[in-house]
TrEMBL record:
SUPFAM superfamilies xref list: EF-hand
Species this protein is from: Streptomyces goshikiensis
Keyword RNA-binding carried by entry: no
PROSITE patterns per the UniProt record, alphabetical: EF_HAND_1, EF_HAND_2
Record's protein name: Oxygenase MpaB family protein
EF-hand domain ranges (all copies): 294-330, 421-456
Any one Pfam family match given in the protein's UniProt record, by short name: MPAB_Lcp_cat
Basic and acidic residues: bias regions: 262-273
Residues covered by region (Disordered): 262-292
Keyword list, A-Z: Plasmid
PANTHER family documented for this protein: BLR2777 PROTEIN, ER-BOUND OXYGENASE MPAB_MPAB'_RUBBER OXYGENASE CATALYTIC DOMAIN-CONTAINING PROTEIN
Gene3D superfamilies: EF-hand
């Protein structure tokens, strides 16, 4: 058995969750989770899946790997990370109902959908677990719930009680609102091409259309009967045939493969190592430097690619919180350091709102952002020092994980790396920012780079490459 397959001593939960075919019920799982009103409200307000779907999926998979496949210490760190993130997700939805991600019943539903997805995968493939197997799977599952701090009393007592719990929740609690319909019918039809698509990228529009149609039909077919009845979303014969073919066909194929091909990685670290190994080896061709004032285009790109984390074309406090969350997710910070970073970015948001929210709707649109930034920068040489400057300094001190007062190349890559930026471009940007060539970037060099990014008229300034080539 290879290191990428669950060890023979692993329990039924890891064996079931570790199979690649769990992906067939993954979208079904997301739909059931998001249909809970509290999850839908939190998703609408805080989630980045509209603007950054692949990054959001990568984070979810990485989190799942740490919870279910890593050792006790890594699981503990992941639980702490989730707790820090969830304590900030709270508010009031459009119907005036308060919500919080820390609600035990909401957390129980989100976790139970994962257990239910594993049992559904087996049932849909024609190989349902026997009662003893369900009991064993549920016992292992409840151990993870206990580690997450979910009270036992909000969970079904036994595996036999889960189907009634799911049926009752679907019929009495869930709602098929805008977020759910976006997941089912729109998200894949407008998703950007994944970075790893390579030479198939030109064919992405066609691939996307086919994948979206298949996934929507499969997901609707596989949802519980109570869903079909409550939301008048019938399981058509064609969709039922598709479901039967895919689930049973994948079962026949996967059970005949060697373990190294049948199972996903068994730890988050191995997954990250393989992700790094799959990165392309050469960056995209670099554009020629532009000599005209490139600030408007650069600021617009910054708004759409960096600020607008929720992808709704507007920026508000939730978008800046999402930016900080993404940084903190990479760095695994203690609570007090996270709080300082959140506070700095909230102060920047207040400056943006006061200066740019011309119509007073509590959000900033792209045209407002570009116009106000250019006006402020041209009018006042210290404009950035009062809002962005403190946020940038807090960002630097957060990324300086060893407290050396400098960012090394590894710390820089952790901070700015992602699916949008090629690793080679990050290396080049780091070298440009390292003005004295000592292999590290000081706080002043870091702040100067951000200043260049927002103020330089030409694309030849070092800071312009801060987040990758323009």
């Amino acid at each position: 058995m290879t290191p990428t397959s669950p060890p023979a001593t692993d329990g039924l939960l890891r064996q079931t969750l570790g199979e690649w075919r769990i992906g067939l019920v993954a979208w079904r799982l997301l739909v059931l989770q998001t249909a809970h009103p509290a999850v839908a409200a939190g998703t609408a307000r805080y989630s980045t899946y509209r603007a950054h779907p692949w990054r959001r999926i990568e984070h979810t998979m990485d989190s799942g790997s740490r919870l279910f496949f890593a050792g006790p210490e890594e699981r503990r760190r992941e639980i702490a990370r989730l707790e820090r993130a969830h304590r900030r997700i709270r508010g009031t939805d459009d119907a005036g109902r308060p919500y919080t991600a820390e609600d035990p019943e909401v957390r129980a539903w989100v976790m139970l959908t994962l257990y239910e997805a594993m049992t559904a995968m087996r049932e849909l493939s024609g190989d349902p677990l026997e009662p003893a197997g369900l009991d064993a799977l549920y016992a292992e599952f409840k151990e993870v719930c206990a580690a997450l701090g979910i009270p036992d009393e909000v969970l079904p007592a036994t595996a036999a009680d889960v189907p009634a719990y799911v049926d009752r929740t679907v019929r009495e609690v869930l709602e098929c609102g805008d977020q759910v319909r976006y997941l089912l019918f729109e998200m894949l039809r407008e998703a950007p091409a994944p970075r790893r698509l390579g030479r198939l990228r030109p064919a992405w529009p066609l691939l996307r259309a086919v994948a979206a149609s298949v996934l929507t039909s499969l997901t609707v077919a596989d949802l519980p009967r109570a869903w079909h009845e409550r939301f008048a979303m019938p399981r058509t014969r064609t969709a039922a045939a598709l479901s039967w073919t895919l689930h049973r066909g994948m079962r026949q194929v996967m059970t005949r493969l060697p373990d190294r091909l049948r199972y996903r990685h068994s730890s988050g670290e191995e997954g990250r190592q393989r992700s790094a190994a799959r990165r392309p080896t050469a960056p995209a061709p670099l554009p020629r430097p532009r000599t005209f004032d490139s600030r408007p285009a650069r600021l617009e790109a910054f708004f759409r690619q960096v600020l607008d984390q929720t992808g709704d074309g507007r920026v508000d406090s939730a978008d800046l919180q999402a930016m900080v969350h993404n940084v903190c997710w990479q760095l695994e910070l203690p609570v007090e350091r996270e709080d300082r970073l959140y506070a700095a970015f909230e102060s920047w948001w207040e400056q943006l709102r006061e200066a740019m929210d011309a119509d007073g709707d509590g959000a900033v649109e792209c045209a407002e952002f570009v116009s106000a930034m250019l006006g402020g920068i041209d009018r006042d040489p210290h404009y950035l020092d009062r809002g962005l400057g403190p946020a940038v300094r807090a960002l630097f001190r957060t990324a300086d994980t060893d407290g050396s007062g400098y960012l090394c190349a590894d710390e820089y890559r952790v901070l700015f790396g992602g699916p949008r930026v090629h690793p080679a471009e990050l290396n080049d940007a780091f070298r440009q920012l390292d003005g004295d060539g000592d292999g590290r970037v000081s706080e002043e060099e870091f702040v100067a780079a951000f200043t260049d990014f927002f103020t330089a008229r030409a694309d030849t300034a070092a800071g312009v490459a801060l987040l990758g080539r323009p």
